[in-house]
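User: I'm preparing a small set of examples for a lab meeting where we compare how different chains pack in three dimensions. I only have the primary sequence for this one, and I'd like the structure in token form so I can line it up with the others. Please keep the answer compact; I'll paste it straight into my notes.
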Amino acid sequence: MSLSFSQIELGATLGSLMRPRPNNPFARPRRPEEVAPGITLLGSERVNFYAIAEGRSLTLVDCGFFGHLRYLEAWLAETSRKMTDIEAVVITHGDGDHLGFASVFDPLGIPVYVPEPDLDDARAKQRAPVAKILRNWFRPACFGLLLESHFDSASSQPPVANALGFRPGETLDVPGRPRTVHVPGHSAGHCCLYFSANDVLVGGDALMTFNIFTGRRGVWTFCPHDRRQDRASLEHLTHLEPFGSAALLPGHGDPWTEPGSVGRALAAARIG
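Assistant: Understood. Below is the structure token output for the 272-residue chain.
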């Protein structure tokens, strides 16, 4: 990717103006972990995102909260990489805990891909709080999530003005070449991403191994819009091959890296 000096300078300037706090007392960072060859888990204990490497080139999948930019920057520095090694950012869906710091890539000319039905969410300046948070705020786990999101600027994170849409079912021409799998229910455009070289499915919020609202372990899917659609989506995943054999990398909770993890998760999934 060829970037002009002015693009890089503008990106650095905007990044410094929007710089989140260097730490958050209500967030515990994950130690970066290679969960599959070339795929690194990043983020906090509540919110995951992933870096996929092909040589020096990277694709970033999801962007946590805005303040989670510090976790990406620390990992890039630790691995002697630069922000401009990121060739593309792919967002599984248009929620604030996945769009996060995606706006910092706009001035660098790095494309941010969002499912077409969720583009309006990505480009919006204001986002409504998730109904699940409003209903569960009194629970310790949910209250901790609220505090983490507040101190990581979730309510004021900038829109991704130049987000590019992709159609579910596409194989994206970015490092890792993920196949996008439409799993609506959580959002209209929600997509999982299948990386065939590793037999890995990044599940977004379709399949999570931790309930961020109640603190319970297990396999969960959340359907703020349409429970019937969510059930249909899980059944759709169940009958698609080869996803049942894949390892599962969720948006929330610990990855299940054994072969067949997606099949086991689908069999155990509960709709929250």
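A couple of notes for your slides: The CA atoms of residues 244 and 263 lie 4 Å apart. The mean pLDDT is 86.

User: Perfect, thanks.
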